[in-house]
Give the backbone structure.
Amino acid sequence: MSPFTFWIDFTSYYKYWDIFEVEDHMVKLNKESMCRHCGYKSKLSANVKKHIRRIHMKATPFPCKFCTFKFKDKSDLQNHYKIKHGVVLRAREIDHLFMLSMITHIPGTTSVLCKICGYSSNSKPNVKRHVVSKHTQIRYPCQFCSATLSQEGDRRLHYQKRHGLTLSTSQIREMFENQHESLE
């Protein structure tokens, strides 16, 4: 084995929601990733993450909103939506549906709870921001550099500070949508 390898601590992956904290359990030693459980290797850490979810995890954190099926992987859920329900969803939309399913109101209080880690707040938007930034792969890319940000408002501030652009969130969304459509 190369001394330059990512090590993924497999033991924590038996916890249901730790799938979203894969990177916390990786140590960068070089340009290669490896599953500590079985030795599977790849130059792309995303391939090792997908391998762990598909082969070793029992958790199915991606439920279908239309039926009782649950999936280990976003791409499997996307295919299911398309084939069984005739619905085409982008990965970002699936992340959003997942995020909404992880928020619940605490009965008898004004608090809203994150089902993943127990974080609570009296503000539903605060809990949504928490779930997106801590538990999903939703990222807001900069159209001008390689930066990706975990919150939409952070992207607006990034444009202002890094690129000298003062844009509203709706202008940024429109710019991103136009760029995305031109690529398709």
